[in-house]
Design goal:
heterotrimer, A mainly alpha (266), B mainly alpha (213), C alpha/beta (292), B: 213 residues, 3 domains
């Protein structure tokens, strides 16, 4: 294992400590969890400010307006019209004023107009037209039952996809009462939907578990470095300190639990 | 004027961008790119609103010593610390050196990443608890859902022996046939809904984004 | 209170504890499991593997730390594969905390590529990856749908400079690279709606080969796009990342994590089974009481 610098190790220990702070919520809400939760809100917001400034305003606005090397003498800028979106953006800030909040509607309208305008043809093409087109492909009658066990490329599978899509669309059509053949089609549709949701749930379980798995790997890697003989005894101290804080808290909770139970019994 | 002009702007820009998709003439492309450059700048100012709200709410809590006010102080501390590091201790405003600042990177790598990823990892436990308490085969539909989920979950299990191969093929068929049909229907429905909502916004039928008078 | 009633009223913290213990024990216990690969991941690997030296790919790192567990291994596996093949990578991020994720990933991958390695029987000597020559990191812009559209016209419209403030026109790698037409493929690794935007606004308008790396939660939802050939490949969750690591012969955290997943899934299935046994037993008891 590669030796880790002491500075990096201290930061990694902080990361491990904060990880355990969040995990402590599984027992109950506590001060460790609250500190970590509020810290991440602030750090995340501060990070976003810097990214918006350096990656957003700086290249897209200030660099466009600057006159030579100066950011303040914009009067001679080669592209002065960039002041207009800056003014429109600043108009957004009137949202906080009860009297002037109507001014913020203009830039919002500009954004909504552009967003809805680009969405109409592209969503229609990609979500509707292409998906309908893919549903109406010719079935492979020559290979109707497929080769091998449950062949997704077989004609039968293609037929199930086509009928399943139609049936699921029938299910979502609530403008007509589901009676007779319509009801039968909708019933088949809900079966198909349930299978689809089950597949999503299976994947979701995998996804959620893998989030925890990665945290175990993180704590495990930190423990490996801590207990690495080449790191010396000092790193092990940090391992005991970090877990020690939570061990003390756990002992306090256990004592409190038995005391409260004793009081209830009395 | 307070509502008519914004509605007119939405209509004009919306219609222009619909037609622009079908008219790739040089001048239409030029105008399209011109508006795109503007929208990035306007959007950044809009996002800054959220940051200001956070600062205002947290400062209000601290100033008036509302319940849990020390935590609001931690929030503000974290926020301003990142801003100080991000501007490289206020030495570089208009150049990106702050993004390479050691403390800025360290706060991201060793505070933000561990806390955010651990917060979401708690979901693993909640899904285990939900699976135990709520995932019941109450009806045929619930059983179908349950069986489908079990097949996907057992898909890569190496301890199934003889059945392992069949489980993998079943899972693959499930994903590429009934799951595909179900999700396709949902995608078509969502697509039609998005087009309908976009048209409603453009034509001024949907006006919630304007807020109250 | 009989055993089924006790089962139904079990404190959920015992469930948490059992899951945690199983996962930790499995992590500590050294064993490996075979990983089977699927067509949707093989398509991505084969596409990148058949590209020539100097070809450009676009890698979208569009996720936050909350999806790091599943998506970071994908980023590492694909980027290392591409760098070993001497492809040029354009990185960009369309999610709020993505720049930090991408910055961290680029630092780690550039360190890893410095080492000599043999993958799939092919020896790759270590080399130094240079910013501006081997890769460029464009950074972040908000409103991903409009950024994707802007990049389709010209990368310089949303990104006049890269993440570090260097104008794109002065970056050697970006000479002659205007938009998606000069890119061989886009691989977007994301945890949110950005995937939909890449399909509708990116591939839908500009017709470039698009592959997606998604979290497990979204994995099952994009098969229709695979079937309609709007995307040519799909990696779903940690399993997808593990499959790519296997194909590229580069075992990493995903393959290691999958073995823990197997046992965690067994625990979840165990909970589902005993929960249903308890439910059926208590329902039978209730129905028996009603009959009386």
């Amino acid at each position: 294992m590669e030796a880790m610098s002491f500075g990096t190790f201290i930061w990694t220990t902080l990361g491990a400590f904060l990880t355990l702070c969040i995990f402590s919520f599984l027992y109950r809400d506590n001060v460790f969890y609250k500190i970590a939760e509020h810290l991440v809100v602030g750090v995340s917001a501060g990070y976003f400010v810097i990214i918006l400034w350096h990656n957003g305003l700086q290249p897209n606005l200030f660099d466009m307006l600057k006159d030579g090397n100066s950011y303040f003498l914009w009067l001679n800028s080669a592209q002065p019209w960039y002041v207009i979106p800056a003014i429109l953006g600043a108009m957004m800030w009137t949202r906080f004023s009860k009297k002037w909040s109507w001014v913020s509607r203009w830039p919002i309208a500009l954004y909504m107009g552009i967003a809805t305008g680009v969405a109409v043809p592209l969503e229609m093409k990609n979500r509707v037209n292409l998906q309908l087109y893919a549903s109406m492909q010719s079935l492979d009658w020559g290979n109707f039952f497929g080769t091998g066990f449950l062949d997704a490329a077989s004609g039968l599978s293609g037929l199930i996809v086509f009928l399943g899509t139609l049936a699921a669309l029938f299910y979502f059509f609530f403008s007509k009462e589901h009676t007779g053949m319509f009801k039968g089609a909708a019933r088949f549709g809900i079966w198909i939907l349930m299978i689809g949701f089950g597949a999503s749930f299976g994947y979701t379980v995998m996804g959620r578990i893998s989030l925890f798995v990665q945290r175990i790997q993180y704590i495990g890697d930190w423990t490996k470095v801590t207990w690495n003989p080449s790191s010396g005894g000092g790193f092990i101290t940090f391992w005991f300190l970090t877990f020690g804080i939570f061990a003390v808290w756990a002992i306090y909770e256990i004592i409190k639990f038995f005391r409260n139970r004793g009081e209830i019994t009395e | 004027m307070k509502r008519q002009i914004p509605l007119a702007l939405v209509f004009i820009f919306g219609i222009f961008h619909i037609f622009q998709y079908f008219v790739p003439h040089e001048s239409s492309e030029w105008l399209y790119e011109f508006f795109l450059k503007w929208i990035y700048i306007i959007g950044i100012f809009a996002l800054a609103l959220g940051i200001w709200s956070l600062i205002r709410v947290s400062w209000d809590k601290v100033k008036h010593r509302r319940p849990n006010w020390p935590y609001a102080l931690i929030t503000l501390g974290g926020l301003f610390a990142m801003i100080i590091f991000g501007f490289d201790y206020f030495r570089h405003f208009f150049t990106a050196e702050g993004l390479q600042n050691y403390m800025f990177r360290a706060f991201f790598d060793y505070i933000l990443i561990p806390i955010q990823s651990t917060m979401f990892s708690l979901l693993a436990f909640f899904i285990a608890s939900a699976a135990y308490r709520a995932f019941r085969a109450r009806s045929l539909l619930a059983t179908l859902l349950l069986l489908s989920a079990l097949i996907i979950m057992l898909r890569f299990n190496p301890y199934l022996g003889f059945f392992g191969d069949y489980m993998e093929k079943t899972a693959s068929w499930l994903l590429n046939v009934p799951n595909l049909a179900a999700k396709r229907a949902i995608i078509i429905g969502v697509g039609l809904g998005m087009v309908a909502t976009s048209l409603k916004v453009m034509l001024g039928i949907e006006r919630q984004y304007l807020g109250k008078d | 209170m009989n055993i089924f009633d006790r089962m139904m009223s079990l404190d959920r913290r015992w469930v948490f504890l059992l899951l945690a213990v199983v996962c930790v024990v499995t992590y500590v216990w050294p064993f490996s499991i075979p990983i089977r690969t699927t067509d949707e991941v093989e398509n991505i690997f084969d596409f990148i593997d058949t590209l020539k030296e100097g070809d450009y790919i676009f890698l979208g790192i569009d996720y936050d730390p909350n999806a790091l567990a599943e998506l970071h291994p994908m980023t590492y596996a694909i980027a290392e594969h591409a760098f070993r093949k001497k492809l040029k990578i354009i990185f960009a991020t369309l999610s709020q905390n993505g720049p930090g994720m991408a910055d961290q990933a680029i630092r780690d991958i550039t360190d890893s590529v410095k080492l000599d390695r043999t993958y799939n029987g092919v020896f790759y000597p270590g080399r130094t990856i240079v910013n501006g020559v081997d890769y460029v990191f464009l950074g972040y812009k908000p409103y991903f749908a409009l950024v994707i559209l802007g990049m389709g016209q010209n990368f310089r419209i949303p990104f006049p400079t890269d993440y570090y403030g260097t104008p794109l026109d002065s970056i050697p790698m970006m000479k002659g690279i205007l938009n998606y037409d000069q890119i061989k493929c886009v691989v977007d690794i994301t945890a949110g709606n950005v995937a939909d935007a890449w399909i509708s606004y990116g591939q839908g308008r500009y017709n470039f080969p698009l592959a997606l790396g998604l979290t497990g939660v979204m994995g099952a939802d994009y098969y229709p796009f695979l079937n309609s050939r709007q995307i040519f490949g799909l990696m779903g969750g940690l399993l997808g990342a593990a499959q790519y690591e296997k194909l590229s012969d580069n075992p990493g955290p995903a393959m290691d994590g999958m073995r823990i997943q197997v046992y965690a899934h067994i625990v979840i299935i165990f909970f589902i089974i005993i929960g249903n046994i308890g439910f059926l037993a208590s329902r039978k008891k209730r129905m028996g009481k009603e009959v009386k």
